[in-house]
Amino acid sequence: MTPAITVGVDGSPESLAAVDWAADEAALRGAPLRVVHAWLWQPLDVPVVQAPEEQAKFARAILREAEARAADRHPDLRPTSDMVSDTAVAALLGEAERAETLVLGSRGHGALLGFLLGSYGQQVIAAAACPVVSVRVPRDGALPDGGDVLVGQHGSAEDSAEVLGFAFRAAAARGAAVRAVRAWSLPPVFAYSPGSLALVDEAGGLVQYETKALREALAPWRDRFPDVPVIEHVELGSGGQVLLAAAADARLVVVGRRARRSPVGSRIGSVAHAVLHHAPCPVAVVPHS
User: How many domains does the chain have?
Assistant: First the structure.
């Protein structure tokens, strides 16, 4: 059975934007669409406590609205839905174990701050077994349908295989180009000893090294997706800054996350964190080894 594109909903405008993106993705990929809402009865902090059946009725209405929205957007879709009796984080992480992609909404906080990821979203993205796409409410009410798929490439070809694969599949489904970005910084020796720059050849040895590393990482995916145009971008700077500078016209940004736990638990990583909070388009975070 084909894994589903799964979207978590809570009735907010952000989650409805996530439904739109998930429905589009399912239609593009010919994948099933699954809509989930996590619900555990608990007394609400209001003067009149709702009975559990009233809260359950509200939860079911959220699912019906999301299903109807997806079906209206793509009449050929037959979305399924489920009300999961668990906390939001636990329910979504459970869904991520069997989903092809998990889609979540992100709350907007204005043009200056970008959008701030809620604590639930951060926990899910940091630990999910599958790629997670974070979608904000579009300013003009429409999801971006033009522009490149922007992907951050880091490390070796093996390190970035899952991330690049996701980006190329997304671009192929959309008839879009892949813009692959590799950011780099000077080794510490140059910061402490500027004279050491003389050791770099006049042709720009460090730039050539980074360009070669990016080209080698892209080579197998170019072969696998020959119809997808590829734009290479190598720039000196921090990964987050370089990606955000290139994201203005992107339709999707794809970044990686190390799928291993640190002593303080799972983490998103500084580059993914920056892009999730400030990119103007949907962001996919892909776990990799």
Answer: 2
